[in-house]
Write a structure and sequence with these properties.
There is one protein chain. By secondary structure, the chain is of the alpha+beta class. The protein has a single domain, classed as outer membrane lipoprotein receptor (LolB), chain A (Clam). It has a twelve-stranded mixed β-sheet. A hairpin with a 3-residue loop joins β4 and β5. It is globular. The relative contact order is 0.21.
Length: 302
């Protein structure tokens, strides 16, 4: 989840997380369309921020940082990899308890300049392709694609996608050229929690990590050193809503087809602008479904 990279744009990205590329495409295709997740979270009620117990000393334990370093080294060494990211985002509800929206991302990458991300839902399905020269976002149901020229590295392409079209992926730091630098920027707290054997059916080591923007709990494979789960709460969120990223189906150095990072259907699809969704026109209201006709009572039989 992008919170692990602390930078001035980080808080702005948080509001975009649950919408993701799928909702972006849904809004771009039709301003009145309804999506699985709201385009913008409701303004949370003000609440007092919770803080650590009095007298608690922030510490950075070497064991926790070594686990992050080992995980990052494993990811950085892979010239190609694929995995599935399943993400749950809590959003405020008028009832009080938060509602969870989910997204799934099937990711394939090849360093330094190839990336494919397939998003089957919830919400409108969408696909993202990057081949070192261009970025393509494709909406299969609408048969529309947005195409833009791109910089020559995955890191720069993902930054450009966010800057130009508000496209964001919560696992971006894991596919960075230097995951350790991205994951540990601004570290204020890190400590080892303990072992676990219930995440993805593998043994993991749990650690906690925080900077001034986010507190995270991370599960890392005890044997393979691959990330299995990341759970985050953001400092600027008074409701302390949780963001949960689970990672599975890891393959390091898979054989990747030469045409995996392009789509013939996207190339022949209609075009839409590669840009962030515009705000709805002034006075626009969501479409409402017509009420179903009332059922007629059955006639009595003699």
């Amino acid at each position: 989840m992008k919170a692990v990279r602390s930078n001035p744009r980080q808080i702005a990205r948080i509001a975009l997380v649950a919408v993701g590329v799928a909702a972006w495409l849904g809004l771009a295709v039709s301003a009145g369309a309804q999506s699985a997740a709201p385009a913008k979270p409701a303004a949370p009620a003000k609440a007092a921020k919770k803080s650590a117990e009095p007298g608690y000393k922030m510490e950075i334990e070497p064991r926790a940082m070594e686990l992050l370093k080992a995980m990052s080294a494993k990811l950085a060494a892979a010239k190609a990899m694929s995995f599935t990211a399943s993400v749950g985002y809590e959003y405020p509800s008028k009832l009080g308890p938060p509602i969870v929206y989910t997204m799934r991302y099937d990711v394939t990458m090849q360093r330094p300049d190839k990336l494919r991300i397939l998003m089957p839902g919830d919400g409108p399905a969408s696909e993202f392709y990057y081949d070192g020269k261009a970025m393509v976002v494709y909406a299969p149901a609408e048969n529309l694609a947005a195409v833009a020229s791109a910089p020559p590295t995955i890191d720069a392409a993902l930054d450009a996608a966010f800057d130009n079209a508000a496209i964001y992926f919560p696992f971006s730091d894991l596919v960075a050229a230097d995951p350790y630098a991205a994951l540990t920027n601004g570290t204020l707290l890190a400590f080892y929690i303990g072992p676990s054997s219930v995440i993805g059916g593998v043994k993991t080591d749990m650690l906690a990590w925080a900077n001034s923007d986010v507190f995270m709990q991370i599960w890392i494979g005890a044997d393979d050193k691959l990330p299995r789960r990341v759970r985050a709460v953001f400092a600027d969120d008074p409701l302390e809503l949780r963001h949960d990223l689970e990672l599975s189906n890891w393959q390091l150095e898979p054989v990747v087809a030469a045409d995996a990072f392009a789509s013939a259907k996207a190339q022949s699809a209609g075009r839409m602008e590669f840009a962030a969704p515009a705000p709805p026109p002034k006075g626009a209201k969501p479409l409402k479904a017509k009420p179903a006709a009332a059922a007629q009572p059955a006639a009595k039989s003699n």
